[in-house]
Amino acid sequence: MFGGGGGGLNPRKMEQMMEQMGIDVEDIDAEEVIIRTDEYDLVFDDAEVTKMDARGQETYQVIGSPAEVEAGSAGGSAGGADDSDAGSSIPDDDVDLVATRAGVSEDEARAALEDNDGDLATAIESLE
To answer: Where is the NAC-A/B domain (predicted)?
Structure first.
């Protein structure tokens, strides 16, 4: 295997190799991860999440044991404070992208994304 020794690759050496190949690795301090499917939601509490960015292609690794719950029942999808729900339902990166592409404020971009169910292309078209 790589790097000699009995048990495989030293984590520090692995990190250096990945860095040399242009792969950035970042641990994310996630409180909860929800994967939604048509049939059920998978809810990971206290999951270990690692983000790898290989020249712009982001990959997320989630390690943990999920609970399987009824579809759409996980997370803060129920009513409540509209402002906080709206802010969390549309990722800030999407808002920035739409605002930049359409040449509008972030508030206008967020409203367009909300009106178009988070569809970036449709939101941009509606603002142009």
So the answer is: 8-75
Per the rule left: phi > 0, alpha: psi between -120 and 50, beta: everything else, 84 is alpha
Cα–Cα distance for residue pair 59/66, rounded to 1 Å: 19
**Alpha-carbon separation of residue 19 from 15, 57, 60, 71 (angstroms):** 6, 14, 17, 39
Residues 19-31: pLDDT tens digits? 778 788 788 888 8
Query: With a threshold of 0.85, does the pTM exceed it?
Result: no
